[in-house]
Specification:
Number of strands: 12
CATH architecture of the largest domain: 3-Layer(aba) Sandwich
CATH topology of the largest domain: Rossmann fold
Shape: globular
Largest sheet: 10 strands, mixed
Strand content: 15-25%
Low-confidence stretches: 1-23
Structural class: alpha/beta
Number of domains: 2
Mean pLDDT: 92
Helix content: 40-55%
CATH class of the largest domain: Alpha Beta
Number of helices: 14
CATH superfamily of the largest domain: Class I glutamine amidotransferase (GATase) domain
Order of helices and strands: HEHEHEHEHEEHEEHEEEHEHHHHHH
Length: about 375
């Protein structure tokens, strides 16, 4: 009996050991709000960035899903860029109440750009007051776009230790809100706390004569606060759409879930375009004209356009680049693949892999293969 017991015990111990060793890594359950206020590019880029961490399970959800209780199966909700007041309108009072209660009981929210508008405490604006901030200069929301210089605070260095040796980073901004602390009397009536700043805007963005200079420098770019037992992270810009910074989205999602100790470290590598580039009015007109160039232009015109985009952070090019992977001219196809690699366009991964698989020109195929390998290397 003793010998049989020892054998049985050893078998159970081995099974437990094997199960423990091969058990799945922690899974973070995330929902991406897909509604009237959610811009396609904004949604898909943040969705793709969340997938950089294979332990994160993400799905699209609607206001109807929220009404049916989907938040009870999630750890974090993402409210993406698009239209701030449209987020508020499409969710409605009922679903906003559900979101607030869920967060107050421990849920996490990541709001980006328009999501930051929606979660603000801005007077006379259709928002639902959760991130401890109010919008400054609301009448001038179309402030501009570009790679903005950001300063990293002490708290930011704790959240993103990979950046500890840097004074400045450059992250994509596209008409996000300028924020300041919400009125103290307003916060006193809310479960929202004052916010902590992780990164600060250094760039002065004011494209157009109607925009006053000096509004954006010093404003928070990434900030976080508590809402009851839950957490809210706000980003007025787009790390998910910035080369070398997509990994910030998984890191932030773990923070929102109050499981930041489970986030994966990364090796930060500076992007090829690592400087402040604010798109001027002339730049924006040039960007707008390039769609016609890419559809009807000559090979030389298309190549000139792509080369221009290499040094000008384009929001629109994200939706055009994958079509150029199938252009009739192999040089254009190669240039498009190089652009996708340099900008780390995560939403172009599948098209890039497909284009590479069917490419017949050896030189272009080599460029595409290098781009595929680089994008694939970002996934953990």
């Amino acid at each position: 009996m003793t010998k049989r017991f020892i054998i049985l015990f050893a078998a159970v111990l081995c099974a437990f050991s094997c199960t423990t060793k091969n058990s799945p890594a922690p899974t973070l359950r995330v929902g991406m709000l897909d509604g009237l206020g959610s811009g396609h590019t904004n949604m898909t880029e943040a969705f793709a960035a969340a997938q950089l961490d294979s332990r994160i399970s993400i799905k699209y959800i609607t206001s109807g899903d929220i009404a049916w209780g989907v938040l009870d199966s999630l750890d974090v909700l993402i409210i993406p860029g698009g239209g701030g007041s449209m987020h508020t309108f499409s969710l409605g009072d009922t679903n906003i109440g559900i979101i607030k209660k869920w967060t107050e009981n421990g849920g996490g929210i990541l709001c980006i750009c328009a999501g930051a508008y929606a979660l603000s405490h801005t007077p006379d604006y259709a928002c639902f007051g959760m991130n401890g901030a109010q919008v400054v200069d609301l009448d001038h929301s179309s402030r501009g776009q570009g790679l903005c210089a950001l300063g990293i605070t002490e708290e930011g260095r704790k959240l993103f230790p990979e950046l500890a040796g840097l004074d400045t980073i450059h992250v994509m901004f596209e008409n996000g809100p300028m924020l300041a602390p919400a009125d103290s009397a307003t916060l006193a009536q809310s479960p929202a706390t004052d916010y902590t700043v992780f990164t600060t805007m250094l760039s002065d963005v004011h494209v157009g004569a109607e925009f006053q200079a000096g509004i954006s420098p010093g404003k928070p770019f990434m900030l976080g606060n508590n809402y009851g037992k839950g957490r809210v992270f706000t980003s007025i810009g787009h790390p998910e759409g910035s080369a070398s910074f997509g990994w910030m989205i998984p890191r932030i999602l773990w923070w929102c879930a109050q499981k930041e100790d489970q986030a994966l470290p990364v090796e930060y590598k500076a992007p090829s375009l690592d400087k402040e580039v604010i798109m001027s009015e002339e730049d924006l007109r040039k960007e707008g004209s390039l769609y016609r160039t890419f559809v009807y232009g000559s090979k030389e015109e298309k190549l000139e356009g792509i080369n221009w985009m290499m040094t000008h952070p384009s929001w629109s090019m994200k939706t055009w680049a994958t079509g150029l992977l199938y252009d009739k001219d192999f040089e254009v196809r190669g240039a498009a693949a190089a652009w996708i690699m340099s900008t780390e366009l995560l939403t172009g991964k599948k098209e890039l892999e497909s284009a590479c698989a069917i490419e017949q020109n050896p030189e272009t195929k080599a460029i595409m293969q290098k781009a595929v390998e680089h994008i694939q290397s970002l996934y953990k």
